[in-house]
Amino acid sequence: TAYDDLVQRQGTVFAQRKWLAMHATKIILLGLFDGSNRLIGTFPIHTTRKFGLPVLMRSPFTPYNGPYFSKDIESSKRFFETRRFFLSEIASHIGQQRLSLCCLSMDPACTDCMPFRWRGYKVIPGFTYRIKLTKPKKEIQANFSSARRRNIRSAMRDSLRIESLESYSLVESLAQKTFDRQNKRFPVDAL
Q: Which pLDDT tens digit goes with each residue over 116-129?
C-alpha cells in the first residue's frame, strides 16, 4: 500500500504496520495527500483507555509518533509550510476526539510544534541528541560527558554490542521479556 511504501522509505521500524500491530491499542493512521491524491505524509495515532478514560499516547517501546513524510516532500522548498499545515490538521483532528489525556512525542526532526500551542495544547520540549557516526570515534567520544563515557566503557566490559537487524524476532523477544518482567500479558495475538 501507499502507507507501507512511505514508511519503508523512511527507514523507521516504529511506523511499520507489523510494529504498530504489536500493541493492543486502537490505531488510526492520519494521511496527508497532495493534489494528485498521492500519500505524502502520515501520522499514526494510538488510542487506549487508562482507568476507564480515553487517552491518546505513543505506543509502548516506541520513541515517537511521527509525523513521517515522503523523502521528495522533505526536500521541497515548501516542506516547512506543508509540515506546519499537516500538524495543524493533526491538532484539529485530535481536538475533535473526546480524550481525557493527549500525550504525543514528535519525531526529533519535527522542531515546530506551534500548531499544537495555537490550539491550546501544552507543548513540553524534550531533547534528543543525534550523533554523526561519520566523525572519528575519538571526536565523538570527546563530546560525551565523563559519566556517559563511563557508561560506554561499562557496556563494553559487559560485551554489549549494537547490530543492525532486518528481523522483528529479536525485538519481539525483548518486548516479550519486558512484559514478562512486569507480569503483563504480551499481545501475541496482534503479531
A: 999 988 888 766 66
The C-alpha cell 527507514 sits at 11
Angle at 18 between CA 61 and CA 9, to 5 degrees: 95
Q: What is the pTM of this model?
A: 0.65
Full DSSP string of the chain: -HHHHHHHHHT-GGGSHHHHTTSSSEEEEEEEE-TTS-EEEEEEEEEEEETTEEEEEPPTT-S--B-EE-HHHHTSTTHHHHHHHHHHHHHHHHHHS--SEEE--B-TT----HHHHHTT------------TTS-HHHHHHTS-HHHHHHHHHHHHTT------S-SHHHHHHHHHHHHHTT----GGG-
pLDDT of residue 157: 92
* Maximum separation of any 2 CA atoms in the chain, in Å: 55
